[in-house]
TrEMBL record:
GO molecular function, one term: cytochrome-c oxidase activity
Segments traversing the membrane: 12-32, 44-67, 79-98, 118-143, 164-183
Keyword Magnesium: no
Keyword Zinc: no
Name of the protein this chain belongs to: DUF420 domain-containing protein
One Gene Ontology term, aspect cellular component: membrane
Keyword annotations of the record: Membrane, Transmembrane, Transmembrane helix
Record lineage: Archaea, Methanobacteriati, Methanobacteriota, Stenosarchaea group, Halobacteria
One Gene Ontology term from the biological process aspect of the record: respiratory electron transport chain
């Protein structure tokens, strides 16, 4: 069953990407007031980074399972794993943005300045860049999967874009765990 017209995949992916990135950059840039989100107890805000690292680790597993499943020809398992990965990504991003807006901005790095400049910032920058690049790729691959029957996907860019998105996604989630470790474990 076709849910999205194949001709509309690119424009829909583009619109979803622009809207998603606008929300992310507005939240990260302090353009959304704290009143834009409901208040939460401090323990909830404190728990979000810990929940997000668990979500990230789980997403690494589901992306890997999905990647291996399609290499073995198990389309149903691949679909389930990749939809779970996307749901985990949406959950992670929702929690992250909620905390960002609710606390008034990103958490300051508690470690030494030299570590901040030469380790933390480069890792964070690569993590964010890959996450931003992944958004349109993920929408495109996901929408193609909904627009085409399984046999028809072989005649699209789904596999090529999906491989690229999955690889970048894995690196981004892994670097996010490193950022968590620097912020919440090392210091």
């Amino acid at each position: 069953m076709e849910y999205v017209s194949r001709e509309r995949v690119r424009p829909i992916a583009a619109v979803l990407s622009v809207v998603s990135l606008a929300v992310v950059f507005a939240a990260a840039g302090g353009r959304l007031p704290q009143s834009a989100v409901p208040g939460a107890p401090e323990w909830v805000l404190t728990a979000i980074p810990h929940a997000n690292v668990a979500i990230s680790a789980t997403a690494i597993v589901t992306i890997t399972v999905g990647w291996r499943a399609i290499r073995r020809g198990d389309v149903a398992r691949h679909r389930a794993a990749m939809l779970a990965s996307f749901a985990l990504f949406v959950t992670f991003l929702t929690l992250y943005l909620y905390r960002l807006v609710a606390t008034g901005g990103p958490q300051p790095f508690p470690g030494p300045e030299v570590l901040y400049q030469f380790v933390y910032l480069p890792i964070l920058a690569i993590h964010i860049l890959l996450a931003v690049v992944c958004i349109p790729l993920l929408y495109y691959a996901l929408l193609l999967a909904f627009a085409c029957p399984v046999d028809g996907l072989r005649r699209t860019n789904h596999a090529r874009v999906g491989r690229l998105a999955a690889g970048l996604w894995l690196i981004s989630f892994s670097l996010g765990i490193v950022v968590y470790g620097l912020l919440h474990v090392a210091y």
